[in-house]
């Protein structure tokens, strides 16, 4: 039974050290941060384009109506 106890203690130690290494590993964190920043910038650009796009479409519609009635 001692061998089995030793094995389970060793297994627990291995799992703990693996978990510690996983939690301490910071590889890829910067890429995730850049991805989040890029997503926020993209949302801001899309919102701006949509709001400006509606204003420009309204301006062209008004211009088109004025040109049609000017004949």
Distance between the termini: 102 Å
Q: How many distinct domains?
A: 1
**Helix/strand/pairing class, anyone?**
mainly alpha
Bulk shape: rod-shaped
Distinct helical segment count: 2
Helical proportion, percent range: over 70%
Tell me the series of helices and strands, N- to C-terminal: HH
- Unreliable residue runs: none
The profile of the biggest β sheet is:
none
Strand content: under 5%
Number of strands: 0
Mean pLDDT: 85
Rounded Rg:
31 Å
Descriptive tags:
transmembrane, transmembrane helix, Flp_Fap, rod-shaped, 71 residues, mainly alpha
Summarize the structure.
The protein has 71 residues and is mainly alpha-helical.
How does the SSE layout of this entry go?
Layout: H1 2-24, H2 29-69
Q: How would you portray this structure in words?
A:
The chain is mostly helical and 71 residues long. The protein has one domain. 90% of the residues lie in helices and 0% in strands. The protein has 2 helices and no strands. It starts with a helix and ends with a helix.
